[in-house]
Amino acid sequence: MFVVALCLTAAATAAHAREFRAADTQNEDYPTVQALRFMGHLISERTGGRHHIKVFHSRQLGEEKETLAQTRAGAIDLNRTNVALIGNVIPSMNVLAMPFLFRSIEHMQKVLDGPIGKEILDSFEPYGFVGLAFYDSGARSIYNNVHPVRSLADIRGLRLRVQQSELMSEMIRSLGAEPVELPYGQVLTGLVTKLIDGAENNWPSFVTTGHYKHAGYYSLTEHTMSPEVLVMSHKAWMMLSAEDRKIFREAALRSGQFMREKWRDLEEQSRKQAEGAGVVIVTDIDRKPFEAAMAGLYVKAQRDPAAAQLIERIRKVE
Ligand code: GTR
User: Fold this and answer.
1) Which of 198, 230, 232, 227 is nearest to 212 (CA)?
2) Model pLDDT for residues 34-47, shown as the tens digit of each residue
């Protein structure tokens, strides 16, 4: 009887041992990818080797729009994307990408590390996802290869690549530029072939992709601080025991802390690299007209009472 019970337990454990596939668009050494690996080590360790995470970086599983659809369907287990992409599906994610919402990186971290961040992560299940953690992503700024951008007049008419996100398109359109939605992996070719005049992103993405070699003007517009988010497919989550879910959640949160230090270093290093390569960095920008031009986005977003409330709560965090 005892032997039978033991065998059954072993069989059940083996049946639940799994390799989880994680998608990330960034390159092998990018902080988000390192964080996913770190999380995988923690999980293997804490489950006694039962569970593993295999990280597919550099868009090996596809671009964010597609991998999100696959994660939702359960074909990919874990996915690290920018909130602007998942915002097409989950409205609260678009709130986090709103222009000039966060006053500073510290403000953003306080919101995401606190009760608001937790509530947001806990609200994904109706959409087929489970929210595990936020990762830092700094601020996004506009870069181009035509001329230095200091004012709205300089932006007018530029063809700027944006993520495949309606909100990001609207943001750039409201500044008077022409948004071109392209997947991340096509931006470099877009710059080289002059399909686009520029794009917008944080320092590490601008540099690790090589965009800085083809867009010599980087203007610190810092128009959005859309963070990164790590989600798990609801289907994969349902296969985990209560104990394993706790392990996954804890490992994800620790990976967020681990990532922060790597992020800060890379941000600084990337800026220096761009500067060293001769990129003109425009810092003297009056952001007030930018904010005013984008105000309509708030009017639209606040028509949804849940979004309006979330925006207000975020603004109130000191
Ligand atoms: C990066 C982000 C990626 C991707 C990319 C983009 O900052 O880390 O997940 O969204 O921007 O612009 O496509």
Assistant:
1) 198
2) 999 999 999 999 99
